[in-house]
């Protein structure tokens, strides 16, 4: 599988962000990519106005997602991103969507909200209540995660036990002391402990680190983006997964039952 990681700084205007996403989709398709992973909440952002996520949110049949669905029509490229969707009075949901050939083929509502490091995502966002599905891309099974989810190994392990070969992670990883080290350590750990590939795309810009990563099942970084806008490619090889799981059979050797989602 050829994957693309398209990182950029999300702006305040959804039309500008839709144009950037469409361009990244077109470039990825032209380069022969099977999968494009974009950042978290690519619809709109205003770093000076935390309530802007409420004002800018759109339903999945709104103009932003509809424009990207139209851009994907007639292509085999699978594109993954997250957007904020209205969810009752003064709240939204952080919904990861998977688009292919004009359709949304899978959705996942972010389970773990970023209530850490002096931030409070739950003030404006409602958490999901379902384990994300697996999707198939180019013969490989892909598990879905979003940003802060990476700090919770139970979700990655559950997806690996469900059959995931690849874990994807759209993110908007906020800058701060040790935060880039956390990002690199956690993504590598989720890959290595589950003998899966991890494809983690981070938003760049004044608030977030960028630094998108593709990591192989033995924890080796095989592609990496800088702190600025970039489109980076990596090749994922099922034989590498088979080799990793033959020499490091952690999924077989485990002594614990598969993690189960607890009700809130």
From TrEMBL:
Source organism superkingdom: Bacteria
Residue ranges occupied by any CN hydrolase domain in the UniProt entry: 1-238
Organism: Candidatus Pantoea soli
InterPro entries found in the cross-reference section: C-N_Hydrolase (IPR003010), C-N_Hydrolase_sf (IPR036526), De_GSH_amidase (IPR047999), UPF0012_CS (IPR001110)
PROSITE patterns in alphabetical order: CN_HYDROLASE, UPF0012
Family to which this protein belongs: Belongs to the carbon-nitrogen hydrolase superfamily. NIT1/NIT2 family.
NCBIfam families: de_GSH_amidase
CDD domains: nitrilase_3
Protein name in the entry: Deaminated glutathione amidase
Classification lineage: Bacteria, Pseudomonadati, Pseudomonadota, Gammaproteobacteria, Enterobacterales
Coiled-coil ranges from the UniProt annotation: none
